[in-house]
Design brief:
With 599 residues, the protein is α+β, with helices and mostly antiparallel strands. The protein is built from 16 helices and twelve strands.
């Protein structure tokens, strides 16, 4: 099975890298006078990144004929709606205060602009695949105490400062001039004239480094110090955990194992206490083993998706970045790659779930396979359809059109489901026994009464603290990128933090399982999974803190999108870390009881 898995991962990486390079097919060399494409993309409230609208939803100057760019799947998923802008920017052709259009705004259009300015709307465009942003207008609040007396203005003048190197576009800046603004405070018709200026400037920056501008903010020294401090803090946490586990092994387990290994019979003349008394029950199959198998299969898929995505991002940064063709900002590349990776790695989920289910002597593998396919995707699809309905009600570009929804469903039906079935059939054919080192007795041992702090909820709360502490600092930067306008590009540090998270989860899981067995509680199967997955619950709890304390997001749509998708992400983290925790505990229990002689 190792060879097919390697081929699967290699194919996934190649297909995803093709998606990364695909976005740069539109980068050209230009001659003097050639028109360089400028696309108007979207507008929306600055503090609500999910609430975006098509550029021409506002009464801007419209070209005679609206021409839309053919968008990729990832661009549509990202909410991009690229349309040719009314500004004509020819290569090396300067323009001074050229009139875009003159128009008379109706009362309704004035009210539309005023509402947009009040909500801090921004405008986004793309020039030769370079993103540019600008605020729509300004609000005069100085020396005005009454909000009803605020003055609202829209900017009517844009200046495009474009830097070039030979026949390549290197950089573009969009500036607005507050002195050219139209008052839209009152509900009355207003005459407005939109103008723009184009200034071309030569630069020595090579084309391969034109993206450094967008990655600079992530690589500032004080930001890197914070990231490295987070990694150092995580390493200290892991060192403390390893020291504690080493102390337990040297002082307790090693002594017990050595004593038991000297006996010819396990129950010799000594009284069995603690974990030593559970040799006949510790490998008793858990309740709802079909559900556990499905959760483990889906969690393995989440782990595969995370690892492959990190590998792709780092390869893209190292290789494509050197060639100068990697786009550090989000143009839908990552959503496309994630859709492909998730669909293909369904084979991993099917194989893991069915093979483990057969190890537990299960027979209804088709039920396990169907449950594996729906345990994460069904809640995700339900959340998506609800949020898409909300976005449609708002008229937002976040709402996916019907043809895109059909494409996603076809990918799921024609790629994800066959991959899931292929993995399930492979797991059924490649059977292996559970191979427990101790025999299981026929009658289950009664679990002695436990203190309240040894309950499932309390143990989950304790188990999730340290893994969450490992990622706490990095979470702010990730949230600011996903739910804000920051650009995150230091994926190497993110990968290191991810590895440290897995290591911490493994160590905490082993410790919690040992303490549970020491209290003669043999029902560790589900407990280890839930304790490991509890970090996902902490992540969802952090989302509340970020929304109310670290952001200015508001409104029904943005709130629905934020908490809806954060619930899905946290659920995926729960499944992934729960799987890691369970397999770590299973390996620990096997090694522990494999060192003694069971009856």
């Amino acid at each position: 099975m190792e060879k097919p898995v390697v081929i699967l991962i290699f194919t996934t990486v190649i297909m995803s890298l093709e998606c990364l390079v695909q976005s740069d097919a539109s980068t050209h060399r230009y001659k003097g006078g050639d028109e360089v494409p400028l696309y108007a993309n979207k507008v929306g409230p600055f503090f609500n990144p999910s609430e975006t609208y098509a550029y021409f939803e506002l009464p801007f100057c419209r070209p005679d004929k609206l021409e839309k760019k053919n968008e990729s799947l990832g661009e549509v998923l990202n909410g991009d709606r690229l349309t040719f802008a009314p500004y004509k920017l020819e290569f090396l052709v300067d323009k001074d205060a050229k009139v875009t259009c003159k128009k008379r705004l109706t009362k309704e259009e004035v009210a539309q602009f005023r509402t947009a300015v009040a909500l801090d709307y921004f405008v986004q465009m793309y020039f030769d695949d370079l993103p540019i942003w600008a605020f729509l207008g300004k609000v005069e609040k100085e020396r005005i105490d009454d909000p009803n007396e605020y003055k609202y203005h829209i900017f009517t003048f844009y200046q495009f400062d474009i830097y070039y190197n030979k026949d390549r576009v290197i950089e573009i800046n969009l500036r607005t001039d507050p002195s050219f603004a139209t008052d839209v405070t009152n509900d009355e018709e207003v005459d407005v004239e939109f103008r723009y200026t184009v200034v071309w400037k030569e630069t020595n920056i090579p084309f391969e480094k034109r993206m450094d501008k967008y990655t600079m903010s992530s690589s500032l020294p004080h930001h890197l110090q914070i990231h490295w401090f987070s990694i150092l803090n995580s390493c200290v946490t892991i060192f403390i955990l390893v020291s504690c586990l080493g102390t337990v092994y040297l002082r307790v387990l090693r002594r017990d194992i050595y004593t038991l290994a000297q006996d010819e019979e396990f129950s010799g003349n000594q009284e069995e206490t603690g974990w030593k008394s559970l040799h006949g029950d510790v490998f008793r199959y858990p309740k709802f083993k079909y559900l556990l198998s499905s959760a483990l299969g889906c969690g393995t898929q989440m782990l595969a998706v995370s690892v492959i995505s990190e590998i792709i991002l780092m390869v893209a940064i190292l290789s494509l970045g050197v060639l100068g063709v990697f786009q550090p900002y989000d143009r839908g590349v990552l959503p496309t790659a994630l859709v492909i990776i998730y669909a293909i790695t369904s084979a991993v989920a099917g194989f893991s779930a069915v093979s483990f289910y057969h190890q537990l002597e299960g027979s209804n593998w088709l039920r396990v396979l169907l449950l594996t396919g729906g345990i994460f995707s069904c809640p995700l699809l339900l959340t998506f359809f609800f949020l898409n309905t909300v976005a449609l009600n708002y008229g937002s570009t976040a709402a996916l059109p019907l043809d895109t929804i059909v494409v996603i469903l076809l990918l799921w039906v024609l790629l994800a489901l066959p991959s899931l079935l292929l993995g399930g059939v492979s797991g059924k054919r490649i059977r292996s026994e559970f191979q427990a080192p101790c025999h299981t007795t026929k009658c289950p041992r009664e679990v002695p009464p436990q203190h309240w702090y040894r309950g499932v909820i309390t143990q989950m709360a304790l188990a999730g603290v340290l893994p969450f502490a490992v990622i706490y600092i990095e979470l702010y930067y990730i949230f600011a990128s996903v739910w804000g306008h920051r650009i995150y590009t230091i994926y190497s540090i993110l990968f290191v933090v991810f590895i440290l998270l897995l290591i911490t989860t493994v160590l905490v899981s082993v410790a919690m399982t040992y303490f549970q067995l020491a209290r003669e509680d043999h029902q560790w199967w589900w407990r280890s999974y839930l304790c490991g997955g509890s970090t996902g619950l902490y992540l969802f709890g952090y989302s509340f803190y970020y929304y109310f304390e670290r952001s200015d997001m508001n409104g029904v749509m943005q709130t629905s999108f934020f908490f809806g998708y954060m619930a899905c992400i946290s659920y995926g983290v729960f499944l992934m870390l729960g799987t890691v925790s369970f397999h770590a505990s299973l390996l620990f229990v096997r090694l522990l009881y494999g060192c003694i002689k069971g009856e």
